[in-house]
Amino acid sequence: MRSPLPLLFALGALAACATVSPPEERAESPVPAAQQKAAQQQAQLPAAHRYKLKIAIGRFTNETNYGRSLLTDAELDRIGKQASDMLMSRLVQSGQFLVLERTDLGKVEREQQLAGVEGLVGADTLVIGAVTEFGRSVGGKTGFLSSTKVQTARATVDIRLVDVRSGHAYFSAKGTGEASTESGEIAGFGSQAAYDSTLNDRAIGAAVSSVTSKLVEELGERRWRTDILEAKGGQIFISGGRSQGLNPGDFLVVMQSGATVKSKQTGFDVTLPARPVAQIRVVGLFGESETSEGSACELVSGALPIPVPPDLFVTDER
After folding, report:
1. Closest by Cα among 219, 135, 131, 134 to 174
2. Which of 53, 152, 154, 266 could form a disulfide with 180 if both were Cys (CB 3.0 to 4.6 A apart)?
3. Between residues 271 and 101, the one the model is more confident about
């Protein structure tokens, strides 16, 4: 009788060749080589001084059929809330914005009542979005004494940015992400793949990461602005301080908003370009938190009418 050892060694060798890839996730954002080179060159340049915009995340829903039922309402939209929380966390971690809480606004207002505080800070831009695609697929191959199984989850997140002053949706973007896991088995040896529920979370996370990079790039092009609190005794006090990136010695521009006229061609109101009226320099900072901070400035050139009219605002020099 022939020894079974050679057969066992052969099966062991086959099992060793059965590779099992670990779970992976990726965001689909192919970038041409020319754009990659331009991005690398830009990254080598000195970083421009940028002030932080105030942004808030508004409605964020699940528009797919996954995870929905007749008993699901806005309070039970788990996927929509998950995507919203992921996006907010990534924006906070970027350190480039002042992110205002809006999704749990009721809880914030209740805590303000308990603390005896009234009022909320207004945002410059509102982020609205939805999970518009989500699905799972199972694939693999089956051969003589061997089989592989691949589980893949795919998600797409759409967002748009809204200017809170005009209500105009000025930017939209889409991010798609995938997460997959693979298992293999040969002659009973190897791993067996059960349902991996974490793929859902990783796919949504990859999609949110993809769209966040586009959102950050677009918001980086938006011009920061703030208001004049008071002009008194040769000093100009403005909203915003160290949390928004302001420092003593910074030069800012006081602008006067252009008139708003109705276009006969479109029927919409059109605001004419603002014009500069003065240049100011930050000389000091005050306030204890990012919601109560301000800056004391001095006039460098130009003139400010007293009292300060409401159509004046302060912005960065570009």
Report:
1. 131
2. 152
3. 271
Average pLDDT, the chain: 75
Say yes or no: 275 and 168 in one domain: no
107 and 248, same domain (yes or no): no
Which residue in 285, 282, 276, 283 sits closest to 303, CA to CA?
A: 276
Pairing of strands 24-28, 97-100: unpaired
Last residue of a domain, which of 175, 200, 219?
219
Domain count of the fold of the chain: 2
Q: Average pLDDT of 26-30?
A: 51
| 264 token code pair | 């006969």
CA-nearest of 220, 214, 227 to 96 is 220
Does 229 share its domain with 208? no
Per-residue burial over 222-253, b if 16 or more Cβ lie within 10 Å, else e, is bebbbebeebeeeebebbbbeebbbeeebebb
- pTM score: 0.61
Structure tokens at 129: 């979005």
Is residue 2 a part of any domain in this protein? no
Arithmetic mean of pLDDT, 114-138: 76
Please count the helices (runs of H) and the strands (runs of E) in the chain: 5, 16
Residues 202 and 234 in one domain: no
d(CA 316, CA 306): 22
